[in-house]
Amino acid sequence: MCSHRRLPIILVVLLTAVAVVLVQSSLAADKPGAADSDKAAGQFLAAYEAEVRPLEIAVNLAWWKANTSGKDEDFAAKVEAQNKYDEKLADRKRFAELKAIHEGKLSDKTVARQIDMLYRAYLEKQVDPELLKRITAKANEIEKAFNVYRAKVAGKEIADSEVRRILKESKDSKERQAVWESSKGVGKTVAADLKELVFLRNEAARKLGFKNYHAMQLYLNEQDQEQVVKLFDELDELTRGPFAAAKREIDVKLAANYAIDVDELQPWHYHDPFFQESPSIFDSQLDQVFANNDILALCRKFYTGIGLPIDDVIARSDLYEKPGKSPHAFCTDIDRVGDVRVLANIVPSEYWMGTMLHELGHSVYSSKNIPPTVPYAARTASHILTTEGVAMMFERFSKSGEWLDKMGASVPDPKKYTETGMKMRRNQLLIFSRWCQVMLRFEKAMYENPGQDLNALWWSTVEKYQLLKKPAGRNEPDYGSKIHVVSAPAYYHNYMMGQLFACQVHATIAREVLHSSDPPQAIYTDNKQVGEFMKSRVFAPGALLSWNALTKHATGEELNAKAFAAEFTAK
Ligand SMILES: [Zn+2]
């Protein structure tokens, strides 16, 4: 045995010696190149920080001002700041330098990572300027058509909010059908322009070396189509059953509300025109709880309790309704050295409890907790999906009565609150996940072959993933009535992947920090270890790890659908 082992060791030594010689000779050959590349990369990053950082801060400040004031001049200043930033990244000479560095060998992993991030950011802005103008003009034209389009019922124009009200409240199937069909009419108005836009986008992508626009968008976001589709196949597999069960329950309730049979349900019976949200049919009293509880105080207490205090963020934020202000909510890291702010419009409701937990979740995953030792270019979240994921992970607690109770909020019946909240959450997540399947697969196929029968493609995808029935004989460009196809192309899947990330990190915290045997039910309030976990496992690398490397670093596994699916199969 012993001698048997000895020989291979000698061989290994010999082979290692050969390998060392080989490595040395290849190093010697590469050495001048690598050192030159390292030097060039270092210079590029320094120039980037000096030139682009002030423009980035200006964009963020202008954005904040416009959205809090709503004034025309502030919006004009925002556009101007954005243009200056875009122009800098479009600079051909700089891009040529960057491309050469990106193609060369870099010995420092941290530098290589930053160069790769910047390469993608600059590449996006390298579209042929003439072509870009045509694309922007075409997209604007379509968006304008959306803005002026009004559904008509019985010859009378009705506002978008009225469409939504009728689809939510009307018990009259005929009226619902008329409103739904009319709301889809905008698709017909824009279909020809949309097809042209898709061709133009594909042309731009091909000029930059991609097979089509969808493939390019994913590349720019550090994803590839095969990888994302594989993940969505897994998601489909694991949630098809729970979704079908949830939909059956919804269908029974809806059919009863309209006094029709379940088989008679049509797409216009589902409240949301695309069935991307859950119909509001399960009696929800969650909002009442917030009449007596201060949302902001609960958030402050929660984030302090887990060791991620946000008092400085609140002090800089703009949190309540006022004239001219954006009605939405968002969080922004202005300068990557701790000036982090939230814009919100808090009113006492479960929705705003969740939204504030969400936005403040973004705020803790920022330069507040990403160490200043992480270089500027990477001192941000790893990816849009990881920051959305962190925000969604904290948002979940607004639907837990036990969590609110533990936080000291007054909740008359925490168990009942949780029951309702969990059902809402289940329906929302499952329905949204099916909708994301439709968007991902439809857009991918559309950019692959824009000349195909898109009406048929849309409905076959909707039927397969959302289990809706195409109305008999319908042959209309219904995909064209979804504005995101125009204004946020190839993007929806990131929200879904963010949700998978949220569930996967939550399950890891449940296991490793809380030692819980039932991760989907796990809650925490006063536990600094949670903040420590987030800082070391999720925040510390900033963007120095790509989204999937970060997922592995944080949870031990690459991003997958198991933890998400477990939320719907657990007892
Ligand atoms: Zn968000």
Describe the structure.
This protein has 571 residues and is mainly alpha-helical. The protein is 65% helix and 2% strand. It is built from 21 helices and four strands. The chain has helices at residues 2-69, 72-90, 92-103, 109-124, 129-148, 160-169, 173-207, 213-220, 225-258, 295-305, 311-316, 350-364, 384-395, 401-406, 414-448, 454-466, 484-487, 492-512, 528-539, 547-555, 562-569, and strands at residues 151-153, 156-158, 330-333, 340-343. The strands form two sheets. Strands 1-2 form a two-stranded antiparallel ribbon. A two-stranded antiparallel ribbon has the order 3-4. Strand 1 and strand 2 (156-158) form a beta hairpin. Helix 3 packs antiparallel against helix 4 (109-124), helix 7 crosses helix 8 (213-220) and helix 15 runs antiparallel to helix 16 (454-466). The structure holds zinc ion. Zinc ion (ZN) binds next to helix 12 and helix 13.
